[in-house]
Amino acid sequence: MTQPIRRGSRRLTFLVLAAGAGFFAMLQSLITPVLPTIQHDLHTSQNTVTWVLTAYLLSASIFTPILGRVGDMVGKERMLVVSLVALALGCLLAAVAPSIGVLILARVVQGIGGAVFPLSFGIIRDEFPAARVSSAVATISAIIAAGGGLGVVLAGPIVAALGYRWLFWIPMAVVGLTALAAHRLVPESPVRTPGRINWAATVLLSGWLVALLLPISKGATWGWTSGRVLGLLGLAVVLLLAWLVAEVRSANPLIDMRMMRLPGVWTTNLVALLYGGSMFAIYAFLPQFVQTPTSAGYGFGASVTQAGLLMLPMLVGMFVAGLAAGRLEARFSAKAQLATGAAFNVLAAAMLTVAHDTRWQVGVAGALVGVGIGLAFASMANLIVATVPPGQTGVATGMNANIRTIGGAIGAAVVSSVVTAHPQAGGIPREAGFTTGFLLLTGIAVAAALAALLVPSGRRAAGRRGRARATGAELATELAPAAR
């Protein structure tokens, strides 16, 4: 294979990847605190405005693994530019949206940018020396984790100073420049997996993801026992089974099930599912807890900006732990870091269950959550990258991110049902609801920590990686005639 001509240094390539991944992660949480403002400005209902979040979630869940796979096939740099351009255009459309319908459409377009996660990991694996891959993957993971937290911190000050539309204007400018930089500076992909798009598998994958995530995100509004929720969940099961059958039987699978069955992959994905459930629920409900008026008998009556500042210890913990993760791997394996990150999450959720009466307690618990997330994000990405063949890095890391999102949607929905089960007068949740919710999160975090112990390590992992490389070579040989 002819090596491509490099158009930029690895440092510039890394900066481009960090900017793209960081701003997409930030857009995941940047909008959540200002939904009431958007609802008032666009004259819509509370039920309708939540589609601003739901549309983004559904779009990202569909495009992240699919474009990761396309990037493995046709070139990661090319698909990175496509994803960043879509993200910038989505931000532009959202910034000028005259109605809630246009804003929801804009969020669908923004969701295409979710592919920057797997594409970034794939480019790092292709372009960086082996000795630097773990550190670079860990740093990008730290930026992704911190970006999600940064959105909560920045939303209040930006809206107060400039208005909510600047939550889209600023990312549009930065992401647009990042797309141009990606086109000019990021080298063409030297590693590609031959094949063609399996459209049947693509439709089935998109179908079961939507049929699963839509009722989970809307269950509280529609009613968990309503016909819409139960019908969509049943449809999700049918489409999932059909997708699995189609992938197993296909000579040109969208996602190779042999890869997904590797112990290093399925165990890490199991941790991602459980960890996502606890992590996203804390993201969603800790700011809500601190913004609860003190007249409710708990909470701090914080504004959106003050709630963001209380999340700063979490943000710092994420970033510092993520940066340290890659450098620690020479002494502590990715599995050890994943288990440690999960243990920090257990400790944080347990602390919130029994100690949430003062701001410093919430700050300390947030810092523990941040350290756990920083270690977990970095180690999960490194475990997947180290296990799968180079030609399947994009699709494998994309599915891992997707599974974490699914876990987050389920965790947030379940905790929401618990927290709001018996509200006070005025609809404010009782403190007991939050306490029970945090206790539930502790249980989920314990399950994630136990799952982390199942991840292969040492010689077993090395052997699995060898077999994964062999699987990738066999698959490429099998698909070569189809590609021709």
UniProtKB/TrEMBL annotation:
Q: Please state every residue range assigned to the domain named Major facilitator superfamily (MFS) profile.
A: 13-460
Keywords for the protein's UniProt record, in alphabetical order? Cell membrane, Membrane, Transmembrane, Transmembrane helix, Transport
Q: Read off the PROSITE patterns from this record.
A: MFS
* Lineage summary: Bacteria, Bacillati, Actinomycetota, Actinomycetes, Micromonosporales
- Transmembrane feature ranges: 12-31, 51-68, 80-98, 104-124, 136-160, 166-185, 197-217, 229-246, 266-286, 306-326, 338-356, 362-385, 406-425, 437-455
Its recorded name reads MFS transporter
Look up and give the membrane topology term. Answer: Multi-pass membrane protein
| Native organism | Micromonospora globbae
**Where would you find this protein in the cell?**
Cell membrane
